Each structure stands twice: as structure tokens, then as C-alpha cells.
Amino acid sequence: MDYDEEDYDQDDDGTEPCPYCQAYVYYDAERCPSCGQYILDADTSASRQPAWVVVTAVVLLAAMAYWLLSPLW
Ligand SMILES: [Zn+2]
After folding, report:
1. 57 alpha carbon to ligand 1 midpoint, in Å?
2. What whole-number distance in Å separates Cα of residue 6 and Cα of residue 14?
3. Predicted confidence (pLDDT) per residue in 2-55, tens digit
4. Cα of 1 to ligand 1 centre, how many Å?
């Protein structure tokens, strides 16, 4: 039989590799304990963004537009 399936056991112990530093992080962890980056679920974050992300983007764009249009210089 092919015992290559044993390799998948590493992915089934409740951890996943950190996308930033490849350290194994628990699924429950919001941040990587190794590099401190926030671990986001790629499947959900790519399809639907949280409301605060949209709000933050709008605020930043508004601030940038205000800064560009301000006659300070
Ligand atoms: Zn990390």
C-alpha cells in the first residue's frame, strides 16, 4: 500500500502552517505566536470582507482625498 497518506496526519492535528513564517499554528489562534501576524481564513476572507475592513478603507480614502485637496501646500 501507499503510506504517503501519513504525511497528511500532520495537517490533521489542529494546526496549519503560518502563511508568513510557516510555523505551525493552531486553527483557533487568531495570531501566529511565532511572527505575531494575524491568521485569517483565506476561504472566507477572500469571498466576503468584514464590515470594518470596508469602513476602514472608505475612511482612509476620504482622509487621503481630504489631504490631497487641502490647500496647505
Ligand atoms: Zn507566523
Report:
1. 25
2. 15
3. 666 555 555 467 888 998 999 999 888 889 999 999 887 655 544 566 788 999
4. 35
